[in-house]
Amino acid sequence: MLRRIEPDARPLADPRKSAVAARRGGPLARSLAIAVMACAGLIGCGGGETVSISAPSTEEARRAITEALDAWKEGTTAELERREPPLRFYDSDRDQGVKLLDFAIKEPATEAGSVVEVPVTLTFQKGRSGRRSHDAVYQVTLQPDVVVLRSDP
To answer: pTM here?
Structure first.
């Protein structure tokens, strides 16, 4: 025997309250906003002293990228963060388990603020015996830690 289900006569939510809540954000949004403002306040209250972070030299950037990519090829990237100073390496293909077979650092490296951008050709394993190449750009900074971040165009 089939029963008919009657719809609930009550509205699910007051649309005016929902719009206001969406604009104000929830507790997480408020906590995030407070944390951002606190950080901005700490940064802005340096007593007039400015901290300048300079970009690494092209050679330092190349050395950091070579170290990171060699570790990826050898499967030892976890050790990079344990070294002194730590090297933080961010690459989405590496994070997804893609196998790096080879790389070639290209010219020219360019300075962009406190980072150096270095073009690199990466060669990945494709299937069991295939290869594919991809042109990438890595950004490198040395302060406060050594960071190598893939930033494809």
So the answer is: 0.64
